[in-house]
């Protein structure tokens, strides 16, 4: 089995998602749209589950990567837990059928309302990120007559060597409490009436392509576990966060595999007799999705040629926001000896930032041709907007030879009618 097996393959020269030809979906849904593969999502969840085999563990899918209800329902059916970072995501988890004891609540800015929502609906644990949050959570739990299970997110001050916008484990980041202050903060937790300490949490960033930062962080967590136990705290659960990277550029990246990550977890933390939680998002959903778009124009410019697509930065913002790379493929497979030419590949939005890539070698494509962005299943549709009054991009889920629209494209009336005119403007002009 290939390392990159993702169930988006050419069959008879046409790109398929599992057993469904992409043009068949495009005919029904129109472009642009996202497509996810059930088999790939399932496979990626299982890779993590198997990597932690032998340890008491729960894989809590970080839904912020892709929170479509159908994806969540699939994860729930596989036995996953889920990591949420807002009251909205908590509601999504409940709506998809996750029981409260499989929901972990992360995030630096939980409000009292969000805390009460989760305390009333059931929660596995809150990953608390600051002392004021701890105090507020204890008060909220007390007012409801319940006890809130917590871990404290510690910031181990390691360099995750990833993009600055998604690194979270350095001391200058806004996340967690400095590990050097952990014993003091756990003492505060123990003194508050309505909190129950259950463990430690750490999450150092996203799109990590080396195990080394994890190793540094987890060795520090192991040490802290012993120290906190010596202080009399019950540390029975370690939440190790997510962040394992995926090969966006398949020709030259080979991030560690879940099995290698699992071996590291066992080596650094396996002796502590703790329940292990991990929170992968990107690795589960990223290569399980593609964005399909149609070429509107092929435009010759001053010293460069452009492919102008009907997908734009509002549909997939990663290139504009992080300078992210996505492989871009034609849906109709290029001939083996096709003449490759460089193109700037752009969307129709009125900003130069709406550039997916520059100077990308592409085989000949004509207006009307379909192209796909690979590795778009995570942080793609969830970050989409309706900028330029471009309807929110639809999502499709494939399962073997079947496909279903799992979020439809809104109509223009729906979009426009979401706005309301204040009374004092009614009747004017
Ligand atoms: C974003 C996030 C994750 C998931 O990160 P991935 O890189 O998508 O695996 C996990 N845990 C927390 C607390 C997060 O904020």
UniProtKB/TrEMBL annotation:
<dbReference type="GO" id="GO:0030170">
    <property type="term" value="F:pyridoxal phosphate binding"/>
</dbReference>
<comment type="similarity">
    <text>Belongs to the Orn/Lys/Arg decarboxylase class-II family. LysA subfamily.</text>
</comment>
<feature type="active site" description="Proton donor">
    <location>
        <position position="350"/>
    </location>
</feature>
<dbReference type="Pfam" id="PF02784">
    <property type="entry name" value="Orn_Arg_deC_N"/>
</dbReference>
<feature type="binding site">
    <location>
        <position position="243"/>
    </location>
    <ligand>
        <name>pyridoxal 5'-phosphate</name>
    </ligand>
</feature>
<keyword id="KW-0663">Pyridoxal phosphate</keyword>
<dbReference type="InterPro" id="IPR022643">
    <property type="entry name" value="De-COase2_C"/>
</dbReference>
<dbReference type="InterPro" id="IPR002986">
    <property type="entry name" value="DAP_deCOOHase_LysA"/>
</dbReference>
<dbReference type="InterPro" id="IPR029066">
    <property type="entry name" value="PLP-binding_barrel"/>
</dbReference>
<feature type="binding site">
    <location>
        <begin position="279"/>
        <end position="282"/>
    </location>
    <ligand>
        <name>pyridoxal 5'-phosphate</name>
    </ligand>
</feature>
<keyword id="KW-0210">Decarboxylase</keyword>
<feature type="binding site">
    <location>
        <position position="379"/>
    </location>
    <ligand>
        <name>substrate</name>
    </ligand>
</feature>
<keyword id="KW-0456">Lyase</keyword>
<feature type="binding site">
    <location>
        <position position="351"/>
    </location>
    <ligand>
        <name>substrate</name>
    </ligand>
</feature>
<keyword id="KW-0457">Lysine biosynthesis</keyword>
<feature type="domain" description="Orn/DAP/Arg decarboxylase 2 C-terminal">
    <location>
        <begin position="33"/>
        <end position="377"/>
    </location>
</feature>
<feature type="binding site">
    <location>
        <position position="318"/>
    </location>
    <ligand>
        <name>substrate</name>
    </ligand>
</feature>
<comment type="pathway">
    <text>Amino-acid biosynthesis; L-lysine biosynthesis via DAP pathway; L-lysine from DL-2,6-diaminopimelate: step 1/1.</text>
</comment>
<feature type="binding site">
    <location>
        <position position="379"/>
    </location>
    <ligand>
        <name>pyridoxal 5'-phosphate</name>
    </ligand>
</feature>
<dbReference type="InterPro" id="IPR022653">
    <property type="entry name" value="De-COase2_pyr-phos_BS"/>
</dbReference>
<comment type="function">
    <text>Specifically catalyzes the decarboxylation of meso-diaminopimelate (meso-DAP) to L-lysine.</text>
</comment>
<dbReference type="GO" id="GO:0009089">
    <property type="term" value="P:lysine biosynthetic process via diaminopimelate"/>
</dbReference>
<comment type="subunit">
    <text>Homodimer.</text>
</comment>
<dbReference type="InterPro" id="IPR000183">
    <property type="entry name" value="Orn/DAP/Arg_de-COase"/>
</dbReference>
<keyword id="KW-0028">Amino-acid biosynthesis</keyword>
<feature type="binding site">
    <location>
        <position position="282"/>
    </location>
    <ligand>
        <name>substrate</name>
    </ligand>
</feature>
<dbReference type="InterPro" id="IPR022644">
    <property type="entry name" value="De-COase2_N"/>
</dbReference>
<dbReference type="GO" id="GO:0008836">
    <property type="term" value="F:diaminopimelate decarboxylase activity"/>
</dbReference>
<dbReference type="Pfam" id="PF00278">
    <property type="entry name" value="Orn_DAP_Arg_deC"/>
</dbReference>
<dbReference type="InterPro" id="IPR022657">
    <property type="entry name" value="De-COase2_CS"/>
</dbReference>
<feature type="domain" description="Orn/DAP/Arg decarboxylase 2 N-terminal">
    <location>
        <begin position="39"/>
        <end position="285"/>
    </location>
</feature>
<feature type="binding site">
    <location>
        <position position="322"/>
    </location>
    <ligand>
        <name>substrate</name>
    </ligand>
</feature>
<dbReference type="InterPro" id="IPR009006">
    <property type="entry name" value="Ala_racemase/Decarboxylase_C"/>
</dbReference>
<feature type="modified residue" description="N6-(pyridoxal phosphate)lysine">
    <location>
        <position position="64"/>
    </location>
</feature>
<protein>
    <recommendedName>
        <fullName>Diaminopimelate decarboxylase</fullName>
        <ecNumber>4.1.1.20</ecNumber>
    </recommendedName>
</protein>
